[in-house]
UniProtKB/TrEMBL annotation:
Pfam families: GMPPB_C, NTP_transferase
Family that this chain belongs to: Belongs to the transferase hexapeptide repeat family.
UniProt-recorded name of the protein: NDP-sugar synthase
Domain Nucleotidyl transferase stretches: 4-236
InterPro entries xref list: GMPPB_C, Mannose-1P_guanyltransferase, NTP_transferase_dom, Nucleotide-diphossugar_trans
Native source species: Streptomyces gobitricini
Domain Mannose-1-phosphate guanyltransferase C-terminal: 253-333
Length: 360
């Protein structure tokens, strides 16, 4: 098994404003674009050829990764003229694949951080003789996901999209966003229109008697679609809870990139990342957060579980908890932003404009 498709065309609307200027897979996690971690893990599992299915801000990918040789890969790029959905995107890149009709092709969603044993998924696919094999994981609350019940042999019996009632929740197994397709199956996906593998391709194949196999792998798994999840995933990579050979430094409580400046008495904890050229001032405390390249955290600021965009500035003594500050935004001194507040790219918040008191 030597090739894969990475689906990186989504607009990342849930991650805005971080995705206004940057496609979601290129937002830095643990010091490098998140996509770097996926590419590195695929290469470690033996993948040599990867096709990136791009759409939104497609022009960003190739200048960064080039032909992939720096990662030991051969990378090609295919851009959708109009969004085609997961299935349509897979079909749209089929002409770039080199596998024979019965050979396996790995497919990954570009927003999933996982410790999946990629080789085990491929082995399951080959030993079971499946047409498609799916990585499944178990979650406590499956209502936001697609349920995938299986029989005693692991064969998929149904696809249930985002169930809401107790009667609909027949399993805690969900579609975890990584698949192995028999190459010939990709050619059966319709062309020239949007297709969802979750809502159309998989159910239709099941209905016609195709063999879809599930492999439950309950190692680390996180959908990075929201700012809170993205920050957590980055911190978990830094601390070694999530595996990746691409983290640029030692695992630990903090990752400070070259050319960043951190005051000696500043405290960085919880997997915090300080990007290249960023500055953290005296007495500042940053916990479980990502501060991107060129951002400034002024003296005495207290930041936790937050994402600070490129070139943004957080004023002195400002408190951020679970906040997102867009690229180039400026939050003045003595503000307090909590619980999912987002400041748009380039916005300006004056000193002391927002405060929370203990009785609010």
């Amino acid at each position: 098994m030597t090739e894969a498709i990475l689906l990186v065309g989504g607009k990342g609307t849930r991650l805005r404003p971080m995705t206004v200027n940057t496609p979601k897979p290129m937002v830095p996690a643990a010091g490098v674009p998140f996509l770097t971690h996926q590419l590195a893990r695929a290469r470690a599992a033996g993948v040599e050829h990867i096709v990136l299915a791009t759409s939104y801000l497609a022009e960003v990918f190739e200048p960064y990764f080039g032909d992939g040789s720096s990662l030991g890969l051969h990378i090609e790029y295919v851009t959708e003229r109009e969004p085609l959905g997961t299935g349509g995107a897979i079909r749209n890149v089929a002409s770039r694949l080199r596998s024979g009709p019965d050979e396996p092709v790995l497919i990954f969603n570009g927003d999933i951080l996982t410790g999946l044993d990629i080789r085990a998924l491929v082995d399951t696919h080959e030993t079971s003789g499946a047409d498609i094999s799916l990585h499944l994981t178990r979650v406590e609350d499956p209502r936001a996901f697609g349920l995938v019940p299986t029989d005693a042999t692991g064969r998929v019996t149904a696809f249930l999209e985002k169930p809401q009632t107790p009667e609909e929740i027949v399993t805690d197994q969900i579609n975890a966003g990584a698949y192995v397709f028999r190459r010939s199956v990709i050619d059966t996906i319709p062309t020239g229109r949007p297709v969802s593998v979750e809502r159309e391709t998989f159910p239709d194949l099941l209905a016609t008697g195709a063999h879809l196999q599930g492999m439950v792998d309950s190692t680390y798994w996180l959908d990075l679609g929201t700012p809170q999840a993205f920050v957590r995933g980055s911190a978990d990579l830094v601390m070694g809870r999530a595996p990746s050979p691409a983290v640029p430094g030692r695992r630990g409580d903090r990752l400070v990139l070259d050319s960043a400046s951190v005051a000696p008495d500043a405290k960085l904890t919880g997997g915090t990342v300080i990007g290249a050229g960023a500055t953290v001032g005296e007495g500042a405390r940053v916990d479980g957060s990502t501060v991107l390249d060129g951002a400034v955290v002024e003296a005495g600021a207290v930041i936790s579980d937050s994402l600070i965009g490129e070139g943004a500035r957080v004023g002195a003594r400002t408190v951020l908890h679970g906040a997102v500050i867009g690229d180039g935004a400026h939050v003045g001194a003595d503000n307090e932003l909590r619980d999912g507040v987002r400041v748009w790219c380039g916005a300006r918040l004056p000193d002391g404009a927002v405060r929370f008191s203990s009785d609010q």
